[in-house]
Amino acid sequence: MATTTILDTVSSRRKPSRLPIPQTVRGRYRTIKTAVASFLLALYFITPWIRWDRGPSLPDQAVLFDLPGRRLFIFGLEFWPQDLPIAAGALILGAFGLFGATAVAGRIWCGFTCPQTVWTDLFFTIERFCERLFGKGTMLSNIAKPIVQILLAILTAFGFAAFFNNAPTFPQALVTGTAPFGAYIAIGVLTLTTWLFAAYAKERVCLHMCPWPRFQAALLDKDSLVVTYQKWRGEPRGKKRTPLRPELTQFDTLIREASAIDGTRGDCIDCMRCVNVCPTGIDIRDGLQMGCIGCGLCVDACDDVMTKIERPAGLIRFDIEGSERSDSFKRAPVRFVRPKTMLYGLLCLGALAAIVVGILRMDSVLVDVDPQRGQPFVQLSDGSVRNDYSFRLAHRLPELDRVAIRAEGLDGVTVRFADAEVGHGTVEVAVPGGRRISDRLMVTAAAGQAPSGRAALRIVVSDPLSGDILGEVDTYFWGPAR
């Protein structure tokens, strides 16, 4: 399989400790980038405020991480720790989806949807706004920028913590001190990390901390779309007033062997606009590099310059690697369907199918019964024999508020919970609003009816209204040996 050469310009040239704020640019990729970032930011900040009826004991929140109850609510779905395989399927789907997107369009994830990119771009926008409002380098600008950035970092941390709390009442709880202590810790840590990564580290996260650039060489191939500089028409670089190479004025026939003529130039006027708008500060004219996040801003900047000097756009463009040697103004045809992308597509479909099957097969009621540790049975004064069990029940049925519990497999046994004094053949118990029961279940066999040694026992949980069986657990009952 053909390999892709990616220059390690991150370490090959010395860069200043902090790059200047990238210049603004207008164009189709800037528009796409802004639209995607706006959608993702709105999704992040608005989602906790979407209401969804969850009964009297839980916040009416569409997406809620219930840490005390160890549950995740996503609209009508409720996930438990037992549903970890579904989460694994989602991670596999995301991984292969990312691999497939990279194989098709390069680092499209990094350039448009990565949280580091989205928040860094937002912080760049804040810095530019403050400099326009108060003047570049002024004291007011230098004071305003960190203040606004810290406020935005706090808002980001609050947005994350709101997924774990009732969003409408969460601000008041924070102000009055009634919020969980962990919420203050989480907001403090996330505020610090958001400010460090988005306001201070910025592009250095992409250049030095993130491992993804090191993986891209293994994921890209000769048919992957990457940002390319058409060296054949851009070199040699020169000022606008310098005459063009003769062959560049002929759009119909391009002479591949033509070399630069003394005193003439290519289409690149060396304005450095592509470098000045780049979030990571690289020069794409040096070739494909690990520092390129594939955002396309240099494409917009170069197209704008080409339009102003009345030259064809596309000197820098998204194209397959090697197109800079094709000597063509037209973009090379892209093969989206090829063995690698088909493999990633099939793997994504397989992971998606596994997720759907897992959701459809999720148990609505989970019952767990374990014999308690210690002596296996207790012989009471009236001759009856009692076994104690740890009983746990959890369910995902909003309308279920009571369950009936009975024991099968032995004649004459009664069941009761620790707070009840008398056992019955079937006991009804109310299910709290948290949809969970955790208690000690006592099963008693009348005198003379206890088994000798160990006997099979089944605990059955049913709906007292419909009689439908909700769950069954096979366990055992111990009696005195005879």
Architecture overview:
It is elongated and about 110 Å long. The chain has 482 residues and is of the alpha+beta class. The protein has a domain at 365-479: Sandwich (Immunoglobulin-like). Helix content is 37%, strand content 18%. The chain starts with 8 loop residues before the first helix and ends with a strand. The model is unreliable at 251-262 (pLDDT under 50). The protein is built from 14 helices and 14 strands.
Largest sheet: 5 strands, antiparallel
- CA(first)-CA(last) distance: 75 Å
The share of residues in helices is 25-40%
Computed over alpha carbons, the radius of gyration is: 33 Å
CATH fold call of one domain:
Immunoglobulin-like
H-E string: HHEEEHHHHHHHHEHHHEHEEEEEEEEE
CATH superfamily of one domain: Immunoglobulins
The CATH class of one domain is Mainly Beta
Shape: elongated
- Average pLDDT, rounded to a whole number, is 86
Task: Please name the defining characteristics of this protein.
alpha+beta, Immunoglobulin-like, five-stranded antiparallel β-sheet, four-stranded antiparallel β-sheet, 14 helices, 37% helix, elongated
